[in-house]
């Protein structure tokens, strides 16, 4: 091991040290992310890149500690991997820098994709129009009183107060939401 290390030039020894350090930090970051202790918090550089159309970069900042480590990871392992294949040191560094930038972009794209899969869990009553469900408590006809319905809205079953303009709707009758009267009352019809 000592013989191998001494056979490396100063440049490659530096690359190995940086790459092993970046790899260790990456492993720690990954473990902490999976157990819920994201290491990126509080380590962002104040400069951020605009990655969205409205100017709010949110969690997709370019100059972060995590992206710096990802760049060093791609850069260092590329130099180590391509050292024998690319004889010109300038070209080797250039190719490795491109690989490092591509790795950062790929990680940012993965996090952007994953963040789009998040759901807030907030039910927007306006989305109830057109939803189908069943009468839970009898609804008097011709808007003479309220009953209750259960509808499937945004992938969840919810219960709402309901009116109907038509005939009385019995418990269990299939319904469709026609209009949202207010934040908690729906106008429904037999389906």
Number of strands: 5
Look at the helices and sheets and give the structural class: alpha+beta
* Share in β-strands: 15-25%
Contiguous low-pLDDT stretches (5 residues minimum) are: 39-58
Keywords: Membrane, Transmembrane, Transmembrane helix
InterPro entries: NA-bd_OB-fold
Organism: Butyricimonas faecalis
Protein name: Serine protease
How would you summarize what this structure contains?
The chain folds into 2 domains: 9-116, no CATH class; 125-190, Nucleic acid-binding proteins (OB fold (Dihydrolipoamide Acetyltransferase, E2P), Beta Barrel).
Plain-language structure description:
It is rod-shaped and about 90 Å long. The chain has 2 domains: 108 residues, no CATH class; 66 residues, OB fold (Dihydrolipoamide Acetyltransferase, E2P). About 10% of the residues have low confidence. 40% of the residues lie in helices and 19% in strands. The protein has 4 helices and 5 strands; from the N terminus they run H-H-H-H-E-E-E-E-E. 18% of the residues are buried. With 191 residues, the chain is α+β, with helices and mostly antiparallel strands. Strands 1-2-3-5-4 form a 5-stranded mixed beta barrel. Keywords: Membrane, Transmembrane, Transmembrane helix. InterPro entries: NA-bd_OB-fold.
